[in-house]
Amino acid sequence: MHVRLDDPVDLDAFRRHARQLLAAGVPPAQAAWNGARDEDLFGETGQGGETGDAAPPATPTSGERHAVPAAFVALCGDVILHRDPQRFALMYRLLWRLAHEPSLRHDPLDADMLQAQQMAKAVHRDIHKMRAFVRFTRVMGEDGLERHVAWFEPDHHIVEANAPFFARRFAQMRWAILTPERCVEWDGETLAFGEGADRREKPPPDAGEQLWLTYYEHIFNPARLKVAMMRREMPRRYWHNLPEAALIQPLTDAAEARSQSMIDAPPTAARRIRAPIALHVRPADGVAPANLGELRAAAHACRECPIGALATQAVCGEGPLAPQHMLVGEQPGDQEDLMGRPFVGPAGQLLDRAMAQLGWARDSVYLANAVKHFKYELRGKRRIHKTAAQREADACTHWLDSEISLVRPQGLVALGTTAARALLGRPVAVQAERGAWLHERRDGRPVFVTLHPSALLRLADGERAEAYARWLDDLERARGTVSAAIAA
Predict the structure, then answer these.
(1) Is pLDDT of 222 > 90?
(2) How far apart are the C-alpha atoms of 295 and 304, rounded to whole Å?
(3) pLDDT digits (tens, 9 = 90+) for 391-417
(4) Quick one: residue 150, left, alpha or beta (phi over 0 = left, psi -120 to 50 = alpha)?
(5) Which of 47, 134, 213, 336 is 20 to 30 A removed from 124 (C-alpha atoms)?
(6) Farthest CA pair distance, the chain
(7) How far apart are CA 347 and CA 169, in angstroms?
(8) Share of the chain above pLDDT 70, in %
């Protein structure tokens, strides 16, 4: 029985014919398969029948239905994409054996099954390489619309299987991928398949190719070059269609010299925006800082908790002496740690915006934090803010008290829970106690409690506007009632 498939990657057609042959009791040795796009290994068939989409001219021997594992159906979906013309015979042979040899499904070393699995792996590799090595070139169509065209030479029949990936990946642009046997085009809505193309139809380089080559040359890291691994991941047979392939050999040849130049280069300067504070200017132990300079030096050298050893520098406050208001936040963030200034990150920018809306000059208030060092955890190269533990916040309390004594503000505004607890010496429920002056400090300075601006940044978009308006009211109340609060 000679079976010819009009579409060599039509799994449904193969399954239909295979079921008919199996029901008719046709053994694998008596079934010859080939596809329209595959080389005809069987030549002219002088005996037996030939069938296309019609059922084989054979009479079923029984009405028995044969069940096969779902994994075998998925395996056939991969194997049918392989270029080997014998793949149909292999799949039918496995189907026959699964129907007549139930133990086959439990044999991991069966030669036929291993061959099918190797073919499936080859197909998956080819699909991956197509996704990695397709390079689009921008062209203008006769209709005046922009289109992106690529040329690729797959090893197997993977164009139809891979096309939906490119449609999802490049859904917003019109593109076409040309291959020797099959072409696919996407117009922004539907995929259209056609016959193969000639390599001479590949469009010439565009301006984007030179930009890509410049980028590729600059990201090439000679210190990480492993030639054997690179050629395993990017086999040479793909190079003639990759524009960056022309750079690989020169960059590889120069890799050793470039690596040595990296070794010989002087070390990169430390990432600091202000010079480190010398530790020898710190006051003696047990002696209160006489001025803000001594306070900054002493806080920088502080190791009463682990935070100080990991931060870039201590971040003390800034602003005028003897102001009406001293605004106290919780702790510095990443940008504050690098710059050595309070409230310069996203939360500080939100505070600046609010003060500008109120007509409240930033340089008229003293800005500080309850904790003087940045606590964080590393995620890759990023330093993610981490809330200071209560013991760490308590270790900084005397630095904040010294700062208040040196600055001499009339009123204190606590931004957030950590600041409120440091200023009042007790746990504070910010939402319940916000918006009013509290008279609990021994030095007589009133404390106004409200939210920290970072709390607003963490809110959902739908909640942020209302919360911001209420926070703005808090700041307006704090600004306008400090004299009355002091008098009270």
Answers:
(1) no
(2) 15
(3) 999 999 999 999 999 999 999 999 999
(4) beta
(5) 213
(6) 115
(7) 36
(8) 88
The rounded distance, in Å, linking the Cα atoms of 213 and 192 is 31
pLDDT band of 48, cuts 50, 70, 90: very low
Residues of the chain with CATH 3.40.470.10: 282-487
Directed axis angle between helix 245-253 and helix 207-219, to 10°?
30
Is residue 410 exposed (0-12), middle (13-18) or buried (19+ Cβ within 10 Å)?
A: middle
Average pLDDT over residues 448-463: 92
Q: Is the pLDDT of residue 356 over 90?
A: yes
Question: Which residues are CB-neighbours of 321 under 8 A, at least 6 positions away?
Answer: 366, 406, 407, 408
Specify which of 61-70, 136-145, 291-300 reaches the highest per-range mean pLDDT: 291-300
Could you give the CA distance from residue 87 to residue 317 in angstroms, rounded to a whole number? 75
Q: Is the pTM of this model over 0.85?
A: no
Measure CA of the first residue to CA of the last residue in the chain; give whole Å.
106
Which residues, other chains included, contact 30 with Cβ-Cβ below 8 Å and sequence gap of 6+? Answer: 1, 48
Across the beta sheet with 447-450, the strand order is: 366-369, 325-329, 411-415, 447-450, 437-438
Q: Is the dihedral of CA 281, 283, 288, 290 positive or negative?
A: negative
Residue 351 near residue 343 (C-beta atoms within 8 A): yes
CA pair distance 267, 284, nearest whole angstrom: 35
CA 71, 72, 77, 83 torsion-angle sign: positive
Cα angle 37, 40, 43; round to 5:
155
Average pLDDT rounded to a whole number, residues 314-337 = 95
3-state DSSP helix/strand/coil % of the chain, to nearest 5: 45, 15, 40
Contact present, 402 and 295 (Cβ < 8 Å): yes
Task: Name the band, by pLDDT with cuts 50, 70 and 90, for residue 59.
Answer: very low
72-81, 102-111, 277-286: least confident range: 277-286
Can you read off the two tokens belonging to residue 336? 């504050």
- CATH fold of 282-487 reads Uracil-DNA Glycosylase, subunit E (3.40.470)
Strand pairing category for 50-51 and 2-5? parallel
The helix/strand/coil state of 227 is helix
Give the number of other Cβ atoms within 10 Å of residue 453's Cβ.
24
The whole-angstrom distance between residue 330's C-alpha and the CA centroid of its chain comes to 31
